[in-house]
Amino acid sequence: MKGLDSSTIVIDHLLRKYKADQKWNRIAIEQLSDEDIVWSPTPESNSIANLVAHISGALYHWFEAAYFGAPHIGDRSKEFERGLQMTKEQALVLVKKSYDSVIQVLEIIKANPEKLLDQPYLNFPTFSSAGLDNQSTVLEMLLHQFRHLSSHTGQIIYIAKMRKGKLVWE
């Protein structure tokens, strides 16, 4: 690691971790049926469909909209709607697309590490969400989402194991 600055180390670590979460979600979901994707352990619990919709919504909000200027189209309440319908194929496509967006941001930042300190929400309407606000840096957003999304990856794997028992890992 000699010769690497701390920003390069952080970016490389986050790239590995986001790619790993993308992989674990994909492997778990591939082993499920469409019925498994919409099943929830209790009426109050989220299904894998809800969790995938939430991952997609969070990454879209924090990276597609903020970093790439995509329009804000999220509907957070729909992410957690009971009975949300989604096929296995739709879940796989959403997981790939969602994680690909944050990985793309990290690849851009890897070439320009100073962008870790950018504040892409400065010119947006005032907001505060889960400890992030208009003053948040890209680094804060990346770290927050990594912690947040890893918990949802764990939930997806847990639900998949509830449905299938033992999962096969590549």
Which characteristics define this entry?
single chain; 170 residues; mainly alpha; Four Helix Bundle (Hemerythrin (Met), subunit A); two-stranded antiparallel ribbon; 6 helices; 2 strands; 2% strand
Plain-language structure description:
The chain has 170 residues and is an all-alpha fold. The relative contact order is 0.19. It has a two-stranded antiparallel ribbon with strand order 1-2. The two termini are 29 Å apart. 62% of the residues lie in helices and 2% in strands. The mean pLDDT is 88. A hairpin with a 2-residue loop joins strand 1 (128-129) and strand 2 (132-133). The protein is built from 6 helices and 2 strands, in the order H-H-H-H-H-E-E-H. It has a single domain, classed as Four Helix Bundle (Hemerythrin (Met), subunit A). Helix 1 packs antiparallel against helix 5 (88-111) and helix 3 runs parallel beside helix 5.
